[in-house]
Specification:
213 residues, mainly alpha, 75% helix
Length: 213
């Protein structure tokens, strides 16, 4: 009888212990599951954020690449335009009166040229700047031209000569012998008359324009 009473007294304690163990175990399991889920969520979120950041970096690189290509194309067009116009004007000799007009050019050329610094050496960028300096002076002289002032015309003709001399030195007279209507831009820079430095710069400019991302 005493033994039965002892068992009866222990039963509630045993149940409390079992309940406590169950609660603790459940809490541990719940906390563990919650931690695992949270960790997986954080890892997934970090993975998504990294992917978004990588996409952003790739888009920025692609945009920068496109900008450099576009700027190279603008520079090539400006040089090509003045080159052809210089040859045409100097070949017209005395018939140039009334046929002079300003040369289209990007007036923000300093920024455009500077964007090529990763593709060109500083010396090569300087070559391009020098050409733009001549183009800018040429446009200034044409805008300030007085129709009946021969000195103004001579100054403009000199600007065109300086532009060609910058590219070809004394060989520019050979370029003037070409039939300009049948000559391509590539033929005007890829020849034995042009200075080697400018030949390399214009060649590289072409290659930048044709780059694929």
């Amino acid at each position: 009888m005493f033994h039965e009473l002892a068992i009866t007294l222990r039963d509630p304690i045993l149940m409390d212990i079992i309940s406590a163990i169950a609660i603790i175990t459940g809490s541990i399991l719940g906390a563990t599951c919650s931690w695992i889920i949270t960790k997986k969520a954080l890892c997934k979120n970090e993975e998504i954020q990294n992917r978004i950041a990588e996409q952003g970096r790739n888009q920025a690189k692609e945009k920068q690449f496109d900008t450099v290509k576009e700027n190279a194309a603008i520079i090539r067009l400006d040089i090509c335009t003045v080159l052809f116009q210089s040859i045409k004007t100097l070949r017209m000799a005395e018939n140039y009166r009334g046929k002079l007009y300003t040369i289209p050019m990007n007036h923000d050329y300093s920024r455009v040229v500077a964007s090529l610094q990763k593709c060109f050496e500083l010396r090569e960028i300087s070559y391009i700047y020098q050409l733009y300096g001549i183009i800018e002076k040429l446009n200034y002289d044409i805008k300030n031209l007085k129709y009946f002032n021969d000195e103004d015309y001579k100054l403009i003709i000199m600007d065109y000569e300086i532009f060609l001399q910058s590219l070809y030195a004394d060989n520019y007279t050979e370029i003037l012998k070409l039939t300009i209507e049948n000559v391509s831009y590539d033929e005007l820079w890829n020849n034995e008359y042009i200075k080697l430095g400018y030949k390399n710069v214009l060649d590289k400019l072409n290659k930048v324009c044709d780059l694929k991302y």
